Amino acid sequence: MLRLEKRPQPSRLWTYATPPLAVVITMIAGAALFAALGKDPVEAIATIFWKPLFGEFSFYYRPQLLIKAAPLILIAIGLSLGFRAGIWNIGAEGQYIIGALAGAGVALALYPLESRIVFPLMVIAGALGGWAWAMIPALLKVRFGTNEILVSLMLVYVAEQLLAAMALGLMKNPEGRGFPGSRNLREYDSAHNADIIAGTGMHWGVAAAVIAVIAAYILLSRHSLGFHIRLAGQAPRAARFAGVRPGRLVIFCLGVAGALAGLAGMFEVAGPAGQISIDFNVGYGFTAIIVAFLGRLHPVGIGLAGLLMALTYIGGEMAQSTLGLPAAAIQLFQGMLLFFLLAVDLLTNYRIRLHKREAV
Amino acid sequence: MALEVAALSLPAPSAFGCVLRDVTFTLRQGEILGIGGVAGNGQDEVLAALSGERLTDPERVRLDGRAIGRLGPNARRALGLLAAPEERLGHAAAPDMSLTENAVLSAATREGLTRHGFIRWGAARAFASRVIAAFDVRTPGPETAARALSGGNLQKFVIGREVLQRPRVLVVNQPTWGVDAAAAAAIRQALLDLAADGAAILCISQDLDELMEIADRFAALNEGRLSEARPTASLSLDEIGLMMGGAHGMEVAHV
Q: Which of A224, A231, A241 sits opposite B85 (nearest CB)?
């Protein structure tokens, strides 16, 4: 008979071993799924994980990896701070949209001014936009005790309506012959978030993601604010005893998450996406939740998880076009990854014992 | 007077908490005041109001004559008022954190474990090791998680962490609850030594024998009201029973 036994302290080995194990199990279960769909399982897994990196067209897909991973990592880092403290911001998608609107708004207002100041102003506006959107659930929670999960999630849909209204109204390209969507910022040099090194996909958002990973690492491991964040998540009463003020923590965590999501949106609209359009947001804000947990809410883990998740996006698209896999199969695949991770997570805190029933 | 609490009244913190009604007492340097009573009569609430977890009107709590009712836990620690809550796992210590991290939890201010907001992990580890050595905490080392320690050992760590910070006033709640006899004796001795060195100690406990052993004066909490404190040496069991039952100032029948 199998029995679970609580470990006296979390296993260090399994803390690091569970994410790779979850990936391996996902590959096996995914292969079985693809086989059941009548596809060659080895071919499908290779298409998702191998070909984008080392296949024939990897020169095209490798930069895509950074472009997709950067917003995921940037958002997930912000979310992870809150998640560590037990503050559940589910509305990063909305903060991402508002950041993009604010950043693009600055660029469009200054158009056609060519100046070095334009891009930095957009960065500030993007961060402030996301921050302000996140302050709504934060202040409501601190002042009235509302549930930040619901408020932040609902604000995503408000932000989507605002995005549509902007794409069709205020920000619509006056020279766009009536098509919805703003001017393309890629054609506006001062506002364009171009590759820092051409052809690598290394735009300013990637640089920001790297900085965010390092800053979050230092904050959590060295600074007393990071210590208080961890403490509040693990033992709220002990946190109050240690002098942590829960309200301030809510404001800080939601504020940082909002600012980073806003930055991600701004870098996206100024570079890879290029313009404000009705379907600008593609779900990075929600996928980042998976990235945050897959990375064990650890900054470096999130960096790796973001790259992996970006890979499944790109490989999934490849598998769709070359093998004819349905798009839903890829989403299922991503979902399985989180599911298996949470399942094997059990091993960090529990030990499985084979228990022989003793004779009475 | 080291600590003065005057007419302290507070609403219950939750549906399961207790209202504090007009709690008044004083505490001198070198003295141990014991507060007895049945659990749930305001013990946690008194500790929270003194540790700074709950704020009050400034004048309600005075430390060395200074009104501190509106100061938070760390500001009070800086002034020398320390506390050790009853619940070891989850209140006094974070279960999944190491002893080093749990040292930072309450000793960061007084032991200078942070610089410009950054934690000095080396100093924190050294302080945790000092507590472990001085209070004979049985553990593989300061990097062990708090929840891996036995109740007695963790309690020795929690009390030791506050005692080694040289408090002017120390508030402890149930210092030897669920602790083995040897550890309990060590903890009581540490409190007596601390008082002998001039600190003022408020010991909240449900263990009457413990209070009779270490306290100079005794008061009882009943439904959030505190009786007048009386010297322990002069108290009979009957009188203690009346105090704990809420019959303040009544006399025992002379038979």
A: A241
What CATH number is attached to the domain comprising A223?
1.10.3470
Judge: B97–A224 Cβ closer than 8 Å, yes or no: no
Encoded amino acid at A74, one letter: L
Domain membership of residue A317 (yes or no) is yes
Tell me the CB-side half-sphere exposure of residue A162, using CA atoms within 13 A: 19
Tokens found for residue A34: 């693809």
In a domain, B197, yes or no: yes
**Does B96 map to a domain?**
yes
Taking contacts as CB-CB distances below 8 angstroms, the residues of chain B near A231 are 94, 97, 105
Distances (CA, A) of A21 to A45, A314, A326, B148: 16, 22, 26, 27
**Cβ-Cβ contacts under 8 Å, A235 against chain B:** 90-91, 93-97
Q: Is beta strand B32-36 parallel, antiparallel or unpaired with respect to B217-222? A: parallel
Number of domains in chain A: 1
Least confident of A104-113, A214-223, A336-345, B115-124: A336-345
Residue B27 has phi, psi (to 5 degrees) of: -140, 125
Tell me whether residue B64 is in a domain. Answer: yes
pTM of the predicted structure, to 2 decimals:
0.89
DSSP, res A356: P
Q: Which amino acid is at A200?
A: T
Which pLDDT tens digit goes with each residue over B76-103?
999 999 999 999 999 999 999 999 999 9
Hey, is B255 helix, strand or coil?
Answer: coil
Strands B225-226 and B200-204: unpaired
CB A47 within 8 A of CB A323: yes
* A71, two tokens: 């917003």
pLDDT digits (tens, 9 = 90+) for B156-215: 999 999 999 999 999 999 999 988 999 999 999 999 999 999 999 999 999 999 999 999
Domain CATH code at residue B219: 3.40.50.300
Per-residue pLDDT of A132-165, as tens digits, reads: 999 999 999 999 999 999 999 999 999 999 999 9
Quick check: A191 and A122 in contact, CB under 8 A? Answer: yes
Q: What is the pLDDT of residues A75-123, one digit of tens each?
A: 999 999 999 999 999 999 999 999 999 999 999 999 889 999 999 999 9
Nearest to B8 by CA among B31, B25, B24: B24
A218 belongs to a structural domain: yes
Nearest to A262 by CA among A136, A94, A121, A119: A94
Helix axes A327-344, A284-294, angle to 10 degrees: 30
Query: With a CB-CB cutoff of 8 Å, which residues 76-95 of chain B face chain A?
Result: 77, 83, 85, 87, 90-95
Q: Which of B92, B114, B147 lies nearest to residue A241, judging by beta carbons? A: B92
- Please tell me whether residue A244 adopts helix, strand or coil conformation: coil
Residue A127 CA to residue B150 CA, distance in Å, equals: 48
Does residue B2 contact residue B27 with C-beta atoms inside 8 Å?
yes
Tally the domains of chain B. 1
| A5 belongs to a structural domain | no
- Of A16, A230, A250, nearest to A152 by C-alpha is A250
pLDDT(B250) > 70: no
Residue B249, domain member (yes or no): no
Residue numbers of the domain that contains A176: 38-325
